[in-house]
Each structure stands twice: as structure tokens, then as C-alpha cells.
Amino acid sequence: MGQRFREVDLYDHPHYYDIVFDEGSAEEADFVEAIHHRYGRTGQELRVLEPACGTGRLVIELANRGFTCHGFDASEPMLDYARQRAKARGEESKMPVSFSRQRMEDFECPLRRITLVVSLISSFKYLLTEAQALSHLRGVAETLAPGGLFVLGLHLTDYSRSHAVHERWVATRGALEVICNTRTWPADRRRRRERVRNRLTIVEAVQEDVRRHESVWEFRTYDALQLRRILHKVGNLNLVAAFDFSYDLDAPRKLDDSQEDIVLVLRKGEDA
Predict the structure, then answer these.
(1) How far apart are CA 91 and CA 64, in angstroms?
(2) Is the CB of residue 237 less than 8 Å from the CB of residue 136?
């Protein structure tokens, strides 16, 4: 008999989510800083907005380096976790980081003169319609100061793929081990959707307890041409560079379909 997984909302369990994804926070922050220094406008202070910030791991890491940051998310459990984490590390008392509950397609940033908006883990693909995606991109453009950057990471879709793709991570924190398995099924090109399933196996060594959680959702799909088209509709976010998920600034790539992982560096026009 196969192992049974309990259906949950992944984002109702921020501690397990954070264990899996926090490992890359320092590397992501290094990349964000380097992007700002290479492509941002000279003399601009780094003021960061992260849509769909989740547990706040990235904005808290950047705030810990002295930058002013704001993160928003639609999940209250994630935000509660982020606020507690910030308080525990002391950032909230110094006020370099704040959080709010908002949605990507309709948001307002309480900080002024944002110089960098960052979204690295395909959160953009949760916007399931063209109208929602355009609303988000235009909101980002309005929020950015002239010359500000939008660093957008996502997985492009290979519509010719006929098999599911599986990714697996294992992470530990204290007595907890979290095994994360994510499966993405072939895309429905007509609907612009792909089905994603996340399974977490949570092992607590001290209590000899094992829990199994499963979450299923859909993403909106993009190939390189579809991504170019929607950016063209926004108009004032100009592509200045692209990379893959290795975050290696010495290995730029093009916005094409040569590989699925891509990070775009988009700059708002100086006169916008």
C-alpha cells in the first residue's frame, strides 16, 4: 500500500516551507546586491519590494545587510511567520523591513522610491490570467523609481514536453528533516496552464513522527515569445540582462527557449 499524503495548503505551513527554501537566501541576496550594483542607477539607495514574499526570508536577509525592504503576501500564516522571524532577528525594531497582506495583481507599496523589485521563484506564474499578469507588471513599473530594476525569475514552459518533470530537495533544521518532491505535468497550451503537485515528508527524529503533506495548484505558462509579448504590452520595463538560476553574473543568457530557468533584469526607463 502506498504512502498516504494529507491534502493541505502549502502556505498554511510556513515553518516547513521555510526549512526547504531558506537555504538559498544568502545566495539570492548576494545576487540581488550584485544586480543592483551592475545595472542600477548610480547613487540609488537599495530599497527593495518583494511581492509574494512568503516567510520573508529574502527581504529579512537584505534588511540584515542594512537595506530598506517591504514584503507582501496573500497568506496570513506566511506573514505571521515573517513578522515573528523579523522580530526574533531584531530587524523590526530598526524598521528596515515591513510586511503587508496584499495580492500581486492589486498592491500598493508603503515605501517610496523603490529601486528594486524582486521575484525569483516563479510567483509571477500564480497570476492565471493576462489581465492579472498585466496589472501586476504595471503595478511594479509604477512602484519603481526611474532607473529602478525588476528582477523576475520563473520557469519557462516547453510545450513540446510530453512527460512530467520531478524535482527533489532535502533540508534539515534541528530535529526536523523535510523532504520536498515537486512534480510538474505537461502544459495545456490552449489554456496556458500547467498542473503542479508538491509533496512534503516531514520527519521529526525526537518524536519518531512522520507527516506527509500534499498541495496541488496550477501555474500560468510562458514560453520566451509569450513572455516577450506581455512585457511589450507593459512598455516601460526594458530587458537589460538575463541569467539562469545559477545566479552567475559572468554567465548571461538570452530570453529564448534554450533552457527553462530564467531570471530577467528589467529596468524602468529614466524618463518614465
Answers:
(1) 7
(2) no
Global pTM reads 0.94
Q: Which residues contact 11 (CB under 8 A, 6 or more apart)?
A: 17, 54, 75, 77, 78
Domains, in order of start, for the chain: 10-157+222-268 (3.40.50.150), 158-220 (2.20.25.110)
pLDDT in tens, 159-200: 999 999 999 999 999 999 999 999 999 999 999 999 999 999
**Cell numbers given for 207:** 518524536
Candidates 261, 257, 231, 237; CA nearest to 247 is: 261
What amino acid is encoded at 213 in this protein? H
DSSP assignment, residue 40? Answer: S
User: DSSP assignment of 128-196, as one string?
Assistant: -SHHHHHHHHHHHHHHEEEEEEEEEEEE---TT--S-EEEEEEEEETTEEEEEEEEEPPPBTTTTEEEE
